[in-house]
Amino acid sequence: MVRTLLAGLASTALLVACQAPQAEPEISGPMLAFRAAGEIGLAQGGTVLATEPGDFAATGEPILTEDGRFVFARNDGRLAVLDTESTYPRTIEVPVGPWVGNGGGSTVVWVEEPDRLMQLDLAVANPVPTLRRTLDLPATVAPSGPPLLVASRGDTAVVARAEAQPPPSNGPHILYSVRAGRPPKPLGDTNANTPIERAVISPDGNSLAYAVFRESGGGCGSATLTIVSLEDAAPRTINVGSRDPMVGDRVLYLWWTGITPELSHVEWNCADPEIRRFPAVSEVRGLSLYPTLQGAALQILDVGPGVTATLEPSAFEAGEPVGLLIVDDKGEKTPVHTDVSAVAPVS
Fold first, then answer.
1. pLDDT for position 15
2. InterPro entries, per this entry (predicted)?
3. How far is CA 124 from CA 52, 66, 70, 78, in A?
4. Cα separation of 59 and 197, whole Å?
5. Which residues pair with 174 in a beta bridge?
6. How far is the C-alpha of 220 from the C-alpha of 245, rounded, in Å?
7. Among candidates 29, 57, 149, 168, which has minimal Cα distance to 101?
8. Are strands 207-217 and 198-201 parallel, antiparallel or unpaired?
């Protein structure tokens, strides 16, 4: 009788345990912002916390405001936004672009023709675009192309304008630094027959790094990286790839989170552009590039102690440079999202 009673109590306890709500697994690790082809998102560890859908191009535009509060990206001329604190998604129905950058704090900026630098504070509930300043670029004798925003940080914006050839022109472009309360400062000629591919301002705001592709015809050409002082416009230019005229090379990603820029680049056979090497990651040291990663990647970022976020090209082709976002936590790799074209750690 006692044995039967004990067995019944054990069965009841087991049933109650099975019916009790199970604790959710704890989400830990650094928070990341990402932009994929069909959505922007927030992820922590290998878990996607929130997304906002859209149609997002693979560009060099930043995706996180400087205060880390908002993820943003252009979506058909509008602005898709995610709040990193509340994870609340929204799409702001204001015309922006064609390139949107950071303007300090929660503010984003863009150029509106003919010469207006516009701004939008994403921390406002119902933000309205306002004029930050007119660009006031120098007048040219011949007709010039429209000013193109290529990089921005804090109170500094860098714009490029085609001046040597009648518009429309792919280059060369003259670069100008536009800062609050100062006249535009010329930063020199890009010395390329195509527009700037990627550009970024250093974390201290003192330098600009930009990559160009010098097309030589027949699907070939070579890439260079130039670092120019925003104070005195002194440049230094680095050849990115091989000097072999039958080998093409191009910069895919460019970022600057430490004391020196880093980039990913790819080479291909000019006789058959479909024959491509996988992208390699290098960092700038003086006037040279040095590999920083054994293996292929579009981008790799240190996002925490022993934790990295890597964009791995799963099947790299001649199209848009997108990859699989993977978080590596002390050797444990977790895939997060496919078709990713930008990633940033949320501080």
1. 39
2. Quino_amine_DH_bsu, WD40
3. 19, 16, 12, 16
4. 9
5. 161, 189
6. 8
7. 149
8. antiparallel
Which phi and psi (to 5°) does residue 62 adopt? -65, 160
Predicted confidence (pLDDT) per residue in 44-95, tens digit: 988 999 999 999 999 999 999 999 999 999 998 899 999 999 999 999 999 9
Q: Six-digit token pair at 229?
A: 């002082």
| pLDDT tens-digit series, residues 219-270 | 899 999 999 999 999 999 999 988 888 999 999 999 999 999 999 999 999 9
